[in-house]
Specification:
The protein has about 170 residues and is of the alpha/beta class. It has seven helices and seven strands. The chain has a five-stranded parallel sheet, sandwiched between helices. The chain has a two-stranded antiparallel ribbon with strand order 6-7.
Length: about 170
């Protein structure tokens, strides 16, 4: 069960998402906007933030940037939901590396996006990280790097290739 912060200024949308998450075995915690979400994120531990884009005070994009700017919340993935279906919003989400769903979204598509966001990601694993894994692996008889590669390679997003100290996503 994942603990997921739902941030949306529409109380009906928050309730619907919370209901759908509960049906999938997750706990949805509600926040009406970023001014409620940020203190909640700093106070409690969450596995995912699902946020609307268009909200008062701070947009979902700005909330996502705030989540990534704080070392305490940097690790939390963010999923964007919006009624906007324009190229500019989609491009901004892609530039920030954020999944972007247009409302209305089916329950199946929403839950699929949530499950994907909750899976461990190889994105952001740096070449320095892989060099450290390789050094540890050499010191431990070679098993560590193979274990890490095997665990990450089983992911549906294609895993990673490690060559010459570089991480390349397939």
């Amino acid at each position: 069960m994942a603990k997921i912060l739902i941030v949306d200024d529409d109380p009906r949308q928050r309730a619907l998402l919370q209901f759908q998450l509960a049906g999938a075995g997750h706990l949805g915690v509600l926040a009406a906007d970023a001014t409620e979400a940020i203190p909640a994120l700093l106070k409690d531990k969450f596995d995912l933030v699902v946020t609307d884009v268009e909200m008062p005070y701070l947009s979902g994009f700005e909330l996502a940037e705030a989540v990534r700017a704080d070392p305490k919340t940097l690790h939390i993935p963010v999923l964007l939901l919006t009624t906007r279906n324009d190229d500019l919003s989609w491009m901004r989400a892609r530039m920030l590396g954020l999944p972007f769903l247009s409302k209305p979204v089916s329950e199946a598509a929403f839950l699929q996006a949530v499950e994907k966001a909750l899976r461990p990601s190889t994105k952001g694993l740096t070449a320095a990280y892989w060099r450290a894994v390789e050094r540890f692996s050499a010191a431990s008889g070679g098993w560590a790097a193979d274990e890490v590669r095997g665990a990450l390679g089983d992911q549906q997003d294609g895993g990673v290739d490690v060559a010459a100290g570089e991480v390349r996503h397939r």
